[in-house]
């Protein structure tokens, strides 16, 4: 019998990667996640892919939400995913991308391992619902 | 049920512990998650790690929001790295009492250590239960210690008892104060002032820094026992209680004085890194003082005693909860009290009786 109750919380990293100074969206997302009861780590602006990987691994997040509005997603996202794999952290991290992503690129990102892409105007509840339904299985 | 079960190490967990000890960052991160979640088997993991702990210098940093804790921690971590030490950081943030959610923002300030995996930074939030946070923090520190970190820094907002409990798991506690915060210094008096081994006036380039420094100096020396020096006899003659900090600190370092440590008061500008080397020197001096005076032993004894008590209390509480469930649940019991069929005292005695019986039986 385990004497203690588990106190599991959903942990998310909201990350801004690359040369993109627009973080209003990331802030709004971070607050919505917090209000949904998640523990949100915010990366701050202008992060390199390695930094995002470092943060995701050390914080052991369930969800990595990458916000990109610069159009550089095809270079940056693969680097993050490669980094996660290097640390054996890709399998149980739900990788999401938010921002302005053309349809063709969306298909490509999903092939790489991005679970879902959320464009402008996506209702907050939809994203939160998606996370709840797709949380990685963990020991 | 029972102790052996609770601390048994499952197959997967044994591997996890092995990986952590072998230096896997992923395993370390995963272990801390298990600790935070109070997930099944975490006790076995912490129990297995215990024998590998005790080598890290554990430093607690606390202070009011906006005092510059995160920025200072970043600079401290960088300075420790420069001299070849590996660093672990546990940053504790409050969580919403309503949703349990939290935004853990301390990581943003860790700009000096990007891409350096030898600085392991972990954000934690208070997950509700009283006393659980300090326990989880202490266990996370153990994981970092066992991993082999030379220095582990615990960073937390100094706002209440919970936070005080958190920094008390550190060997050396630094309290950060902002200049011009006369009132803040007042509020610090209660609780936090007693736990500080080092007081740091951060943002010391701001107006009012000198005054805050002076106020802290005064407070530090006032908190000393008024009889201090009367029974010491080392100096042949009673040393007047004057606020010459340099000299007093030397007293502490030299180790020829009694085993008390007079808190140091330092100034830093975390943004520029000014005062950080001196702060690290002071941390080192305090660590040496703890070891040479033997104070580290009593501190550890006190800490482990508190851990044992917390665990036992929580486990016995769980047994009692199970007993309540067996008797139809707390609501049903409350209703019977409401109908005047019984009273809270009698009920509590009845519920605890089987546990008390076991204790009595073993005692005789």
UniProtKB/TrEMBL annotation, chain A:
Claim: Ribonucleoprotein is one of the keywords in the record: no
Top-rank lineage group of the source organism: Archaea
Domain called B12-binding: residue spans: 9-138
Keyword annotations: Cobalamin, Cobalt, Isomerase, Metal-binding
Any Pfam family: B12-binding
InterPro entries: Acid_CoA_mut_C (IPR006159), Cobalamin-bd (IPR006158), Cobalamin-bd_sf (IPR036724)
Cofactor (UniProt): adenosylcob(III)alamin
One example GO MF annotation: isomerase activity
CDD domains: MM_CoA_mut_B12_BD
Family: Belongs to the methylamine corrinoid protein family.
The protein, known as: Cobalamin B12-binding domain protein
Organism: Halorubrum kocurii JCM 14978
